[in-house]
Amino acid sequence: MVDVWAWLLFFFTLIALLIILVYQLICLADLEFDYINPYDSASKINRVVLPEFITQGVLCFLFLVTGHWVMSLLSVPYLYYNVRLYTRRQHLVDVTEIFNLLNWEKKQRLFKLGYVILFLFMCLFW
C-alpha cells in the first residue's frame, strides 16, 4: 500500500512540474506573439521559477528516500542544472533581455518539458 501512495505522490509532483513548465512556455509564446508586454511576461515566469526548482528538488529527494535509486539517479542531472542556474543567478528572466533570449528560453523550457514527460512515462509504466 505504501508503494501506491508513493507512486501517487510521484505522479502528482510530476504533473505539478509539467503544469509549471507549460505555464512558462505559454507566457513565452504570448510574448512572442505580442499578446503580453515583456514586464508582465517576465514577472509571471519569475514567479514560478523557484517553485519549479523546489518541486524538482523535493521529487529527487522523495525518489531517494523511498528507495527508487534509478529514478533518483536519472533526476540528478535536472536537479544539478537547476542548482547551477540558481547559483550563477541565471534562473530569473531579465525584462530588458527577454526578446534577445526568447528562443533560448523557449528551447530551455522545451528541453525541461521533454525531460519531465519522459519521467512521467517512466513513472507510469515502470
UniProtKB/TrEMBL annotation:
Main localization, broad class: membrane
| Entry annotated with the keyword Membrane | yes
Q: By its UniProt entry, which Pfam families does this protein fall under?
A: Cornichon (PF03311)
| Keyword Cell division found | no
What subcellular compartments does it reside in?
Membrane
Pull one GO CC term from this UniProt entry.
Answer: membrane
**Transmembrane portions of the chain:** 6-28, 49-71
- Which keywords has UniProt assigned to this entry? Membrane, Transmembrane, Transmembrane helix
The entry sums up its family as follows: Belongs to the cornichon family.
Name of protein: Cornichon homolog 4-like
Can you name the source organism? Olea europaea subsp. europaea
